[in-house]
Every structure is written in structure tokens, then in C-alpha cells.
Specification:
The complex is a heterodimer of chains A (about 525) and B (about 325).
Chain A (H helix, E strand, L loop, with lengths): L4 H29 L8 E6 L14 H10 L4 E4 L2 E7 L2 E6 L5 E6 L13 H13 L11 E7 L2 E6 L6 H4 L10 H6 L8 H4 L3 H4 L9 E5 L5 E6 L12 E6 L2 H10 L4 E2 L4 H5 L5 E7 L3 E6 L12 H10 L2 H8 L4 E2 L22 H10 L4 E8 L3 E2 L2 E2 L1 H12 L3 E8 L1 H10 L4 E6 L17 H5 L8 H12 L3 H18 L2 E6 L1 E7 L21
Parallel strand pairs in A: 1-10, 1-11, 15-18, 15-19
Antiparallel strand pairs in A: 2-3, 4-5, 5-7, 6-7, 8-9, 9-10, 11-21, 12-21, 13-19, 13-20, 14-20, 16-17
Helix pairs in contact in A: 10-12, 11-13, 16-17
Chain B lengths: L1 H27 L5 H4 L3 H4 L2 H11 L5 H13 L13 H36 L4 H15 L2 H15 L23 H7 L3 H38 L2 H8 L4 H38 L5 H10 L3 H29 L1 H5 L1
Helix pairs in contact in B: 1-14, 6-7, 6-10, 6-12, 7-10, 8-10, 8-12, 9-10, 10-12, 11-12, 12-13, 12-14, 13-14
The chains are: A alpha+beta (about 525), B mainly alpha (about 325).
Chain lengths: ~525, ~325
């Protein structure tokens, strides 16, 4: 048949116009980008969100911590990435009694909330009690603590037992000070039944009630959260007036930072960073996150992993340096469970070196040819690292000493359940500090939260437990240091928990923003950017 | 015709009920404890907090009771609350649904215009060089992995050339237009904000083109085959013999005949496009149902998972229903069958 030529032309035109239209919209982009000079004052930060709430009492996630550290002041704080010494914030000074059971804080004069109301000791008591009573993820921070206000400018925190970690604990954004009048007005309560009766979360998700350098402009847990500078802030005003925190996958972050749509990217792995061009600044330091695995000490869970011979075989069968290599540039080997920047962290002189023969002998004592199962989360990554490659390397190294490791990956929702139930024979996990103090790592001792999961219950290692008890009551930091070291050395010998490494944490920023350091406590101190 | 539509509607309704049941049961028997999945390390070690969370989420009741409570809520338009956003799931669906719909409809539009147009060209130029080039092009469109195409497209057009933004629906921190339809392109026009409209279009183009790629190829092949098939029919020859202009032959006879199979393809392709949005939305940080579903699954956000499943199933069913009815309108033989 004859081709209807005109129709052919028409159809071609339609298709071509569609393609052309798509391509032509591009120049419009450059026009719409600069209609109002506002863009330059905004700082855009890309982060893979784990954002749940903007209510400090209920918040206990990394992204939430970044946002709320900028919005709510705490009694004390840390600055410049230094997690060793708490600094004054809402409290201008503080003191502690001899047995570390009573802390007295003096509230700084002249602090007002973003609505202009003055901040008093009553707000501190309300905020801390509310955290305790809403029974959220961070309520454990107040375990054993009571708080009172003898007068308008004094707050006293009393601990049931000696607790040297209190100054570090009160830096947590979870314990941020809220405007008690405003929060009460909007459904908040610090009463003992707050878990059932407090209904201020919705309000706090839309309006911030703090005294920090920023206030919430908009809050969304899935797309973006916007902060604007708080005009009432009592301290040094932040450099950026408006900060947009945007939810983006690592892949999207890479594109955004290359195209300049984002100023800062927080989740790029070392391989992604290696491919970046010259127009960015990369700041790499060790993250306090600790990758570790454990051998279950409960004979009911495993006859094999609970045996001292097996522990010895693993301790000398693992090549820690090869693990570190896998963790990439900037990562640091963990000699003990306490991270390198904290009091009492172990040094290279405590390193165990691989000894294949010794490990093989230990396996022989077990009767040879043992098989164990290693469980880990397959759909989870931290600092750009997934668990899978490490599990595979553990299996390969232990195979050389005669231990067959069957890998049991699973979605984190399921593996987390068996980990918490203490039914894993061997598990590969990581730990982010709850607060920047070595005391947090007593959780890995016998009877601690992680210890229990590894089948290591109270009473199983009296020698270690005695050291743990002693360090809890020791007020003098100089005396605490050797005790934490001893705790870790003894734990390493027992071999139930095997610390692997601390990954590198990198913050990538555009040259316009300049150097932005990673903060080991808050991940990112937004108000300090550009200073 | 009325009976035909009623029958189709009845079947669709049955499907909806079945979907809800299946979605609910499958989600409930998922491994993993949704209550502790929400809790941090220290809180999960506290049985009191875990118990309170289970109570709050209604997980302390037997499964059948949970189902009836859910059904009851459903009748009132209550799909439960999402764990990740703390908002009612229905609010989330209404919030994220239009974002996905705007993306999917734009992709469909591109596919129909480009794929359909090129398909007609290929058919009218059958077995010439033009046809061969177009067929190779369509094969590429169908077989290209969408995530790979997305990464290539963004690295060239967003990162290198910087013609298009690489993520989001608007520039970072930009305030969305007052919400009427949830489509930023339409809402910004309604608000009379032209710069915002261009910004929304700008953000839409790249993900929509990526998403449309497989559909363009598919439609091109179908349109070509369908037009060729009709061109060979007796009645076309008769029309030509009567001396009708080529233009009225094609528009009056060929396209009408070729449309039926193409509509089916558009319908099913649109539905499968929704699956493609999960990937595309992840890559382009597009805040739609796809990203929402992905996050819901990884955080064991049960209400959200069931909500999204029902929502997507409803769209599938609706699209199929519309396709069926359109069929009946275009080709009367079908509704009598």
C-alpha cells in the first residue's frame, strides 16, 4: 500500500516535539534557580534519614540527634568533636559529691526559649522527668536518677548508686531542655503515668520548644526537615540562617554533592569518596561505632561456642588486620570494646596476633571439625559498610584453622529479634554509644545488655564483674582509666565479645562550605558549621 | 453496556476484599517483631517498655481480633498509624500518592506520545531503514535495566551537564504550592506561581523519562504490530479503493482498529510502572509511594505495608476496570461476548 506521507510526517513531528520539549526544559532550570538570592544563605545537608520524632523525650536516633542537638540545649554539652570533657551549656557550672551520687548544676542566667519565656530549673526538672516517664527509647538514660530543683537556678541530680557518667549522660539531645509551660499547654506531662497520658509529640513535631541555636521551620521524617536560626538564642549565633536536612540514599548524595544541589553529604562510603572530583572537602575520622562479633557463652544455645577452647581458637584464628583492610581507609582496629577516643581505651600493645597453629591445636582439643552458625543482618549498612563481606572473611579465616562457619544472613527485622532473644550461636553486630562515656561499654560485660545476648550472664565471670563494680563507684578519672583497661583485657581473654574495628566516618562538603568535621557525639554539630 | 459495567464492578469489588485479607494475613505472619523493631537497644531490653509498645500497636490481641479491628477502621477510612511518619497511613497515602501519580502519569504520557508516535511511523515505513532503526531503539527501551538507565541518565544530565536536578520534587527547602491536587505542576499553576511550575517540571522530567523507557519500547512495538495488522485488513483496502484520502484512512479506520490492543498494553504497563517507581523514587529521592513502601518494609511498619498494598492493588484493579470498559466502548463485540 501507498504510504500516507503527510501522516508519517505528523507522527514523526509529534514524537520529535515530545523529545525536544523534554530537552528544552533544561535552560528554564537555570532561570528558576536564581529568582531570589535566598538559596545562597541556605545550607543543604544530605543524610539517609532514621528520623522518627522531634520530641526529645522520645527521640533516640542519629538523624534525630543531629536535628535536636541544634534545637534543644542540654545541661552540658561537648564541642569541637572532643568527647572527653563535658562543657557548660544550660548549666554554667556544676559540682559532684565524693561518692558520685549527687550532682549540683547552676542554671545560667538570661537563657530564654524561642518564644521569649525564661528557662528555669523547673523546665530542667520537667524535661528530665518527662524523658524518664514517657518510657521511650531513651528513658534508660534516667535509670536510677532523680532530679529536683531546690531553687530557680539550681538543679540536683541524685543517683541511687555511684554514677560517674552523669555529666556525659546529660549532654544527650534526648535530655534536651523543653519549655515546660508551652509543652504542658500542648498535652505534655512529666507525671509518672506520662507513658499513657503525654500527648505533646504531635505538637513538638511541628513546633519546637527549645532554647537552642535553631528552631524547626518544618519537620518531615521522610523528605526534608528545615531549621531556621533562633533569633532569641543566648549564645553565639550560627553562620547559616536556614538549614535544610534532606533524606537521600548514598547514591543520591553522591550525585547531589557532585552537581552542587547539596552542600554536605553524610553517608558516602570510602569507595564513593575516592571517585569524587576536586571541588569537595572530605573530613575523615574514626566513628565511635564499634563492629564486633560474639560467641554465645550459653551451653544451651551452643556446646561449641560456649567452650573456652573454641574461644581460644577464634581469638587466634582471626586475622584482625585483614578485617581492617576490608573496613577501608580511615578505619581503626579495636583492641578493646571501648572506642579509641574514650577513657581507658586499649592501645596496640594489647593486640592479639594471629597464631594459626595455636588455633588449630585448640580446635583439635574440641575434637576437630567443628561447625558453627554466624548470624548477621544482610540489609543493613553503617558508614558505607555492610556486614556480609566481614562475615565471609570471618568464615574464610576460621576455615583455615578447622572451623566451618555457616553464614546465616537475614533481614535486620528478623536477625535483631534472635540477637535480642540471645539465641544466636555467633552474631556479627555493631554498637553506637548511647552517651559518650566508657561506662556505656559495661553493657558488654557479664550481665550487661549485650553480655546477656551473648549468653554471658551475671555470675559467669566474677573477676570481671568485680572490676566493673569497682569502676562504677570510682570518682577519680585517673583511677577509672586502669580499671576500664583491666575490664577490657579480662574480657578479651574470656573472648565472648570480639571487638573488630571502628569504621571511618566521613563528612563530604563542597568547597563553598569548607571543612566540616565529623562529631563523634552528635555526628554533625549544625550550629558549628562555618565557624 | 450497564450490565457489562456492573459485572466488571462486582468482580473488582470481590478482588478488593480478597486483597485486603491476603495483605493483612501475609503481613501479620511476617517474621520479626514489629514492636521491638521500633525500639532501641536499651529500651528493647526493658520488658515493660516492650509490653507497652505491643499494647500501643495492638499486637497483644489475637490475630483475628486485629483483623476485625483493622476492617472496622477501614470502613471509617482509618488505615492505622504509620510507625515511621507517626501520621495516619491514609494521610501518608494521600500525601505520597499524588507524587507517585504525577511521576507515573508523566511517564505514561511520554510513553504514549513517543512510543505510540514512533510505532505508527515504524508501521507506515515498515521494513525500511527507518523502521529498522526504530525497532532497535524499542528493543533497547524494553531490555534496558531501569536502575542502570537511571544512574547513567543522572550522571550525564544531572551531574555532568547539570541540565536537570538529581533529586526531590522541588529545590531543597522550597515551600510546595498550596495543596489542591497534590501534583506540584498543577498546584503551582493554580497558585499562579510560574517559576515554581518550571521548577516542578524540571524536577519531573528526568525521573519521568527514565521511568517511561521500558514503556516507550513496549508501546512502540505494540503500536507498530497493531497498525500493520490493521493495514492488511480487507476494510482498509476497501476504504482506499473508495478513494478516501490517506489521512482519513489512517485516522478514521486504521487507528481506531489498532487502538484496542494498544489500550490493553497501556493499562498493564501503567500498573507495572508502579513497581518501577520504587526503584526510580529511591534513586531520585522522589517522595512517593515507592520510597514510602520501601521504608515501611525495612522498618516492619505493618500498617503502612498493608496500606500501600491495598492502595496499589486498588490502582491495579481500577486500571483494569477502566481498560475493560474502554474496550467495550471501542469494540462493541467485546461487551456482547
Amino acid at each position: 500500500m501507498k504510504t500516507p506521507r503527510r501522516l508519517l510526517t505528523a507522527a514523526t513531528l509529534v514524537a520529535a516535539t515530545a523529545l525536544a520539549l523534554a530537552a528544552c526544559a533544561a535552560p528554564a532550570d537555570t532561570d528558576t534557580d536564581q529568582p531570589d538570592g535566598e538559596q545562597s544563605e541556605s545550607l543543604v545537608i544530605d543524610k539517609s534519614f532514621d528520623l522518627v520524632t522531634a520530641d526529645p523525650a522520645r527521640m533516640f536516633e542519629t538523624t534525630g540527634g543531629i536535628v535536636l542537638h541544634a534545637v534543644y540545649d542540654s545541661l552540658l554539652t561537648f564541642a569541637d568533636g572532643d568527647a572527653t570533657e563535658p562543657l557548660p551549656s544550660v548549666a554554667s557550672e556544676w559540682s559532684v559529691n565524693d561518692d558520685a551520687t549527687e550532682y549540683t548544676f547552676t542554671i545560667r542566667d538570661g537563657i530564654t526559649f524561642s518564644d521569649g519565656n525564661p528557662l528555669t530549673s523547673a523546665d530542667v526538672v520537667f524535661s528530665l522527668n518527662r524523658v524518664k516517664n514517657v518510657q521511650g527509647n531513651g528513658s534508660f538514660l534516667m535509670n536510677g536518677l532523680t532530679v529536683s530543683a531546690p531553687d530557680e537556678t539550681t538543679v540536683v541530680i541524685t543517683s541511687e548508686t555511684s554514677n560517674t557518667a552523669v555529666p556525659a549522660i546529660v549532654t544527650s539531645p534526648t535530655l534536651g531542655i523543653v519549655n515546660s509551660a508551652l509543652v504542658t499547654e500542648n498535652g505534655g506531662t512529666d507525671a509518672e503515668d506520662a507513658a499513657e497520658t503525654d500527648s505533646a509529640e504531635e505538637f513538638l513535631n511541628s513546633t519546637s520548644a527549645g532554647s537552642g541555636p535553631y528552631v524547626l521551620e518544618s519537620f518531615d521524617t521522610t523528605t526534608e526537615t528545615v531549621l531556621v536560626a533562633n533569633p532569641e538564642y543566648w549564645g553565639e549565633a550560627p553562620v547559616y540562617d536556614r538549614v535544610v536536612l534532606r533524606n537521600a540514599t548514598a547514591e543520591a548524595q553522591l550525585m547531589d554533592i557532585q552537581s552542587g544541589t547539596a552542600d554536605i553529604a553524610l553517608d558516602l562510603g570510602s569507595d564513593q569518596i575516592a571517585g569524587l572530583g576536586g571541588d569537595v572537602v572530605v573530613n575523615t575520622s574514626q566513628s565511635p561505632t564499634m563492629f564486633f562479633f560474639f560467641l554465645n557463652a550459653n551451653p544451651e544455645v551452643s556446646e561449641i561456642t560456649s567452650s573456652p577452647d573454641f574461644r581460644e581458637a577464634v581469638r587466634y584464628g582471626i586475622d584482625f588486620d585483614a578485617m581492617l583492610e576490608l573496613a577501608g581507609e580511615g578505619a581503626e582496629r579495636a583492641y578493646g570494646i571501648v572506642p579509641s577516643s574514650y577513657l581507658g581505651a586499649l592501645g596496640a600493645d594489647s593486640a592479639v596476633e594471629r597464631d594459626v597453629e595455636r588455633a588449630q591445636e585448640a580446635v583439635a582439643r574440641l575434637g576437630g571439625d567443628v561447625t558453627v552458625e554466624l548470624e548477621y543482618a544482610s540489609d543493613f549498612s553503617s558508614n558505607g559498610l555492610s556486614m556480609g563481606p566481614f562475615a565471609e572473611r570471618i568464615a574464610a579465616q576460621l576455615a583455615e584453622v578447622g572451623i566451618t562457619v555457616n553464614l546465616a544472613p537475614g533481614p535486620i527485622a528478623t536477625t535483631l529479634e534472635s540477637y535480642r532473644a540471645g539465641t544466636e550461636e555467633m552474631g556479627l553486630w555493631l554498637w553506637n554509644p548511647d552517651y559518650p562515656d566508657s561506662a556505656d561499654y559495661l553493657a558488654f560485660g557479664p550481665g550487661g545488655i549485650v553480655g546477656e545476648r551473648a549468653g554471658w550472664t551475671a555470675g559467669m565471670a566474677p573477676e570481671i564483674e568485680a572490676v566493673m563494680e569497682e569502676v562504677r563507684g570510682e570518682v577519680d578519672p585517673a583511677a577509672r582509666e586502669p580499671l576500664y583497661e583491666e575490664f577490657q583485657e579480662l574480657s578479651n581473654e574470656a573472648g565472648v565479645i570480639v571487638p573488630l574495628f571502628q569504621p571511618a566516618a566521613s563528612v563530604v562538603s563542597t568547597s563553598a562550605v569548607g571543612d566540616v568535621p565529623y562529631d563523634p557525639v552528635f555526628s554533625l554539630d549544625i550550629a558549628a558549621i562555618g565557624r | 453496556m450497564a450490565l457489562f459495567i456492573a459485572k466488571r464492578l462486582g468482580a473488582a469489588l470481590l478482588l478488593v476484599v480478597g486483597t485486603i485479607l491476603v495483605a493483612f494475613v501475609l503481613t501479620a505472619v511476617l517474621p520479626g517483631d514489629a514492636a521491638t523493631a521500633r525500639l532501641g537497644e536499651q529500651a528493647a531490653a526493658n520488658p515493660e517498655i516492650v509490653e507497652a509498645m505491643r499494647r500501643q500497636m495492638g499486637l497483644d490481641r489475637p490475630l483475628y481480633e486485629q483483623f476485625f479491628i483493622y476492617l472496622g477502621g477501614l470502613f471509617r477510612g482509618d488505615l492505622g498509624d504509620s510507625v515511621q511518619t507517626t501520621r495516619p497511613v491514609l494521610t501518608d497515602l494521600l500525601l505520597f500518592g499524588p507524587a507517585s501519580a504525577e511521576l507515573a502519569l508523566s511517564a505514561t504520557l511520554i510513553a504514549v506520545v513517543v512510543g505510540g508516535g514512533l510505532g505508527i511511523v515504524a508501521a507506515l515505513r515498515a521494513n525500511t531503514a527507518v523502521d529498522n532503526v526504530l525497532r532497535a531503539f524499542s528493543l533497547g527501551g524494553v531490555s534496558i535495566p531501569i536502575f542502570w538507565f537511571a544512574l547513567i541518565a543522572t550522571s550525564i544530565f544531572a551531574t555532568r551537564l547539570q541540565w536537570f536536578p538529581s533529586s526531590g520534587r522541588l529545590d531543597a527547602g522550597e515551600i510546595p504550592p498550596p495543596r489542591v491536587t497534590g501534583f506540584y505542576t498543577i498546584d503551582s499553576l493554580l497558585a499562579g506561581d510560574l517559576p515554581l511550575f518550571f521548577q516542578a517540571v524540571d524536577h519531573l522530567i528526568l525521573p519521568a523519562i527514565v521511568l517511561s523507557a521500558p514503556m516507550v519500547g513496549l508501546l512502540m512495538r505494540f503500536t507498530r504490530a497493531s497498525v500493520l495488522d490493521v493495514l492488511g485488513q480487507e476494510y482498509i483496502r476497501a476504504a482506499e479503493a473508495k478513494g478516501l484520502s490517506p489521512r482519513s484512512v489512517v485516522f478514521g479506520h486504521v487507528l481506531r482498529g489498532a487502538l484496542v490492543p494498544v489500550i490493553t498494553v497501556v493499562g498493564t504497563a501503567f500498573a507495572s510502572l508502579l513497581a518501577g517507581t520504587v526503584l526510580v523514587e529511591q534513586i531520585f529521592a522522589w517522595p512517593g509511594i515507592g520510597s514510602y513502601a520501601y521504608r515501611a518494609a525495612s522498618t516492619l511498619d505493618l500498617s503502612a505495608i498493608v496500606g500501600v498494598t491495598i492502595f496499589v492493588a486498588l490502582i491495579y484493579i481500577f486500571v483494569n476496570l477502566i481498560t475493560d470498559i474502554l474496550y467495550g466502548i471501542i469494540d462493541p463485540r467485546i461487551r456482547r461476548a
